[in-house]
Amino acid sequence: MFEIVRRDGLARIGRFETRSGILETPALLPVVNPKILTITPAELYEEFGFKALITNSYIIKNSDDIRERALNEGLHSLLGFPGIVMTDSGTFQSHMYGEVEVSNEEIIEFQKNIGSDIGTVLDIFTEPFWSEEETSASIDVTLKRTRDAVSMKGDMMIAGVVQGSVYPDLRRMCSERMKEMDVDVHPIGGVVPLMEQYRYSELVDVIINSKMGLSPDRPVHLFGAGHPMILSLAVLLGCDMFDSASYAKFARDDRMMFIDGTYRIEDMLSLDCKCPACKDHTLETLRALPEKERIRTVARHNLYEITKELALVKRYILEGRLWELVEQRCRSHPALLDALRRLNVYRDFLETYEPISRDGAMFYTGPETRNRPAFRRYEKRIEERYVPVTDKAALFEDREGKPYGRSYCEDFARVRSSGYVPIVLSPFGPVPAELDEIYPIAQSLFPSVADKETEEYSENSVMEFVSRSGFSEVADMDDVPHGNGGYDHLPEKAKAVARYQFGKEAADALICGNVKIVTSKNTGKIRNVISDDEHVLSMRAGDGLFTLRPEGALRIVEKVPGPHMRVVVSDDAVPFVSEGRNVFCAFVKECDPEIRTMDEVLVVDGNGKLLAVGRAMLIRDEMLSFRKGVAVKVRDGVGKS
Amino acid sequence: MFEIVRRDGLARIGRFETRSGILETPALLPVVNPKILTITPAELYEEFGFKALITNSYIIKNSDDIRERALNEGLHSLLGFPGIVMTDSGTFQSHMYGEVEVSNEEIIEFQKNIGSDIGTVLDIFTEPFWSEEETSASIDVTLKRTRDAVSMKGDMMIAGVVQGSVYPDLRRMCSERMKEMDVDVHPIGGVVPLMEQYRYSELVDVIINSKMGLSPDRPVHLFGAGHPMILSLAVLLGCDMFDSASYAKFARDDRMMFIDGTYRIEDMLSLDCKCPACKDHTLETLRALPEKERIRTVARHNLYEITKELALVKRYILEGRLWELVEQRCRSHPALLDALRRLNVYRDFLETYEPISRDGAMFYTGPETRNRPAFRRYEKRIEERYVPVTDKAALFEDREGKPYGRSYCEDFARVRSSGYVPIVLSPFGPVPAELDEIYPIAQSLFPSVADKETEEYSENSVMEFVSRSGFSEVADMDDVPHGNGGYDHLPEKAKAVARYQFGKEAADALICGNVKIVTSKNTGKIRNVISDDEHVLSMRAGDGLFTLRPEGALRIVEKVPGPHMRVVVSDDAVPFVSEGRNVFCAFVKECDPEIRTMDEVLVVDGNGKLLAVGRAMLIRDEMLSFRKGVAVKVRDGVGKS
What we know:
In chain A, 40% of the residues lie in helices and 21% in strands. By secondary structure, the first copy, chain A, is an alpha/beta fold. Chain A has a 6-stranded parallel beta sheet with strand order 6-5-4-11-10-9. Chain A has a 6-stranded mixed beta sheet with strand order 25-29-28-27-24-26. Chain A has a 4-stranded mixed beta sheet with strand order 17-16-15-19. In chain A, a hairpin with a 5-residue loop joins strand 27 and strand 28 (610-616). The mean pLDDT of chain A is 95. The A-B interface holds A 201, 260, 269-270, 272, 274-276, 279, 304, 307-308, 311-312, 314-315, 318-319, 324, 327-328, 331-335, 337-338, 341-342, 363-368, 445-449, 451-453, 456 and B 201, 260, 269-270, 272, 274-276, 279, 304, 307-308, 311-312, 314-315, 318-319, 324, 327-328, 331-335, 337-338, 341-342, 363-368, 445-449, 451-453, 456.
C-alpha cells in the first residue's frame, strides 16, 4: 500500500495506494466541514491539486440534513470529490466539548457505510496536562477500540491514532502495540494543544517516540498540523500526512497564514503576496471585499501558502537538503529553535536513517547543525573504526578550501615525511588526513568564523581522540620539521576509508597482501584498489567513498561472518538477483541492522552465498516491513553459476 | 529630494524625488540592455511596478543604430519607459574588458543629452585584488571626475560612486570626500566580484564603512546587487537602491533565481513556484518552451522573485523586525552567516541607529542575535547608568514568562525584604529587577535551552557587573531568607528606568523630593511618577519606558546642561513648535548626538528655552542633513507664553 519513492533521512516522498487513488506524500489533507464549504471539494481537487481531504463523520452523523444523503449517495458524491476521503471520528469534538454521544463501533460502522476511504478510530484524546496514570489508562481504551475497529474494517482503511500525552515512553508503548494491529495509517493525536502553546520541543519528543515504535511501512499523520511553519520539521521527523482546518478557520477570523506566522488582516502593514489568490489585491482592496468573498480569498491564500511550503519541502527532499530548510525555518520562532535543539537527544536514532552520503554539500547554519546525524555518524566511526598510521600526530587548524589535502598539500607532506599523521581540528571533530575526502568532511561549507560551541567541541574531541587512539607524540603542525622517512600515504588512505565505510575486519580482508593503488592522472586521487591482483574497490570522486567490486565482496563473504553488510533474500529471488536485477522488499528475509541507506551491501542467499553487490536504498526495518519498493539497487550480479 | 518615511535602524523606507517621478526605496532597478529587451521597459513599469530602471549610456553611445534615436527622442521615448531612467557610464565595461574609449566629460555630457534622470560618473572600478596604493590613487581620479561631473550636471542628477576595493579606511575616506560634493545618489561600486566570490563578510565591511562616511540624506545604491538572497542584509545596513542585470542574464543561461540560491533548469528536480510567470508550468512544460519564450518566462520569474523579497523586506521594516528576517536569510549559505557574524565589529555604529524601543517582541535566532545593537545599547547603559539600590545582590536564573517580576514575584519580594537587589542572569547580561519591564528585556523571546556562547556571556557579564557596581555581598536566590526590612521597590524602579533612559543627572532632577508612584489598579505596574507634586513622568505599558511630561522636561532644562536631550530649532519654527506642531528637519539647528530614534527629547530655541516635548524620529546627523521629513514628533508644546 505504501512505498518510499525518495527519501532524506526519516523524511520521505511516498506513494500511498488507496481504493480512491494514489496519494503522494508528504501530503496535506484540507479539512472540509461538510456544512460550511468555504472552498468546495471540487476546487480543492482541481485548482489546488489536493488528492485527499478529511471530513468529520461525527458531524455528518449528527446532521439530519446530510446524514441520509451521505448514507445513500456516499461521501464522495455528497462532497463532490473524486479523490481520497478520510474521516475523523469525533475524538477532537470530545477534546473540545468534553464528550461525544457515539460509540466506537457505531462511528466505525457509520464511516464504512458512508464510504470513507480511511476511517478513524474513536480514540481518547490525551491532554498534555494529564497524569501518566490517566494517560496510560486511556491508551488501553484507545488500543482496545483500535483492535475492535480493525476487526470491523472490511475494505475501509483504518487510521489508528497514537496517543500518550507528553510521555515519551507511553507514546512509544502505544506505537509498539499499534504496530501489531492491521492498521493502515497512524495519526499522531493529542498534539494540537502542544502546537497552540508553542511547545514544539515536546512535539519533537512525541513525534520521534511515536516513530520509534511504529512500523516504517505505514504513513504517519500528524493530526491537526497545518501551519506551514511546522511542516518541514515534521516531515524531517518522518511525518507523511497532515491536515489543516486552519486554512478556513483562520480565514473566517480574517487571519492569513504565512511561513513566518499568522497575521490578522487588520494588523497587517502591507500585503506582499503574489499567490493566485492575492496577486490582484492590495491590503486595501482585500480589506474592502464583502465578507464572504474575503473569507474565500484568505482561505485560498492560506491553502496556497501551505501547498507552496509542501512543494518546497519535497524539493529539499529530492535535493537531500531538508535539514538545511528545517534549520532555516526553525529561526522564525525561538520555540522552534528549541525544537531544533531538542533533536540533540535523538542523534543515535536519527543516525540510523542517515544516508552514507548525499549529492550536495552540507551547509552549516549554526551550532544546531552539529545535531545532524551525519556528525554523529562521523563521531562514532572515528572512535570505533579508525586505526592510526603511526603514533605521532601533527595538529592542523580547520581551513577553507577542501579537501584539506589540497589546501594543506605541502604541510601534510612535510609532517608525513617525519612520520606524523596530520589531524585537522574540524567542526566535525578530528579529521585524520586519510579521511579528508570522504562525505561529509570534504563536501561541507562552514563559516570562516566558528561559534564557541563548535570551536570547543572541535578542540575537546581532538584531545580525546588523540589520547584514545594511543598517539604518544602530539605536535603543532608548524613544529614538525621535514624528515626523510615517513610512510606511503595512499595505501593508508585506502585502508582508512575502507575501515570507516566497511569496518576494520572487512577492510583488512579487502586491502591486504600486495596492494596497488591506481590514481587519477588528472587529480592524483585514488581511483582503484588492487589487492593481490584483484580489483577490490573503486573510489567515487563525488563522496570519496568506495564502490565495492565483486572480487572485494567475495572476500568479505569469505572472511567476515554475517550478518555484516548482508542482505539475505528468499530463494525465489535468487535467479533474478544473481543476474543483476534489483532486490525488492518483498524478497528480503534478513538484513544487517548496521546497514545504512546508500551503503554498499552484499546480497546473499539463505546459505550465505554471494548473489550480488549493490547499494542499500532502505534500512533493515524498512526492508523487512515494506511490501513494495526497491531494497537494494544491484550493480553486479555475481551468483550466476 | 530624499526623505525617510519609515525606518528600522539603518534600514529605511524612503521617498526619492526625481524629475521623472518619485521612487519609493528600497528599490531595485532592473538593468535594461537597450539592444536586447528580454522584458520590455513598458512591461517592467506596468506589470512589475518598477518605477525606475537603469540602462547603459556607454552601450547606447557606441551603437550606431540607437545613438541617434536616443539623442533625438531622448531615453524615455527610446525605451518606452514613463518612469525614472538612470544610466551607467561604462565603468563596469572597463572592469570587464580592461578599458573604455570615452572620457568622463564625454559620457556625462552624453547622459545629459539623452535625457538620463540620474547620470553616473565614469569612476574607476577598484578590484578586490588591488593594493592599497593602487586603490588610493584610483580613488583620487574617481573623486576628480566626480567633481567635474557635478560641475557639469545641469538638471541631471549625479550618481557619485564610492570606491575603495576591500579597504575599509579607503571606502570611508572616499565617502567622506564625496559627501562634500553636490552628488545626488551614492552607488557603492566595485562589489560585484565580492558577491560573485561569496565574500559577503568583506561586503559588510565595504557597505558599513561607506555608510559611515556618507551623508544620510542621499540614497545609497549597491551597484550590481540583485540577488534576492543578499537584499535583506544590504537593506539592513542602509542600502536604498539595487540593480539587477542577472534577472535577464541568468534567464539567458536557463537559471532561475530563488531566495535560497540560483538553479539551472536542467539540474532542477521540481518546480515549486506559484509566481505569475511559473504558476501554469511544471518543470517539464517550462523546459519544453521554445528558447525565446523560456528565457522570457525565466526572466519574469526572476523579477517576481526579487520583487517578492523586496516587498517582504519592506514589510519587515514596517514591523520593525528586519533583523529577524536577515538572521533567517543568512542561514542559506555559510558565507552569509559569516557576514552576519561580522556585524559584531560594528555594534557601536549600529547602536547609533537603533531605536529606543520597537513595537514587537524581539526573537532570538542564535548566538548572532547578540550582535544586534539593542544588546549593545543595554550593555553600555547598564554599565554607565545603573546605580545599585543596596550593596547586596541576589542572583536569579533566566526564566520564561516575562517580565521577571511576574514569574519571580514572591522570590523578588523575599530577597528584597532582606535588603538584596534581585539580579537575573539573562541573555542580555545582568538584569536588575528594577529594569525587568523595559524594552527589550521584557519584550523578547529566547529558546529555553541557551547556547554556550550566550550562557557564558550571561554569566561573565553578571560577574563583571556585580564587581563593578560595588556589591559587597552576592548570594544565590535560594540562599536569601525572608527578612523584615528591605526597601520600597517602586520608587527605585522608577529611578532606575529614568536613569537608564535619560541618564543619571536627568533622573535625579526628575525624581527627587517627595516622590509618589501611581500604579495601575489592574496590573500593579507604575503609571505615573509624581515628584514634589509635579507629574513628571508617565510609564508606557508597551515598552516599560517613560514618557516625559512637560513638568519633567522643564526640570531637565533647568538642572541638566545642554546639549543633553536637546533638539535646537531655528527662530522661525519657534511659534509653531510651541503650539505643538512637529519639528521638521529643515528647522533643526543642533541636536544632542546621544539622542536615538524614539527617544524623548526637549525641543528648545537658540537660547535653550523649552518649546516642546516629543519623540525623536531621526538622529542628529539625519536631522541636520535632511531637508524634508519630521525630526521630532511633538507631544506637548510648552513654549507658548
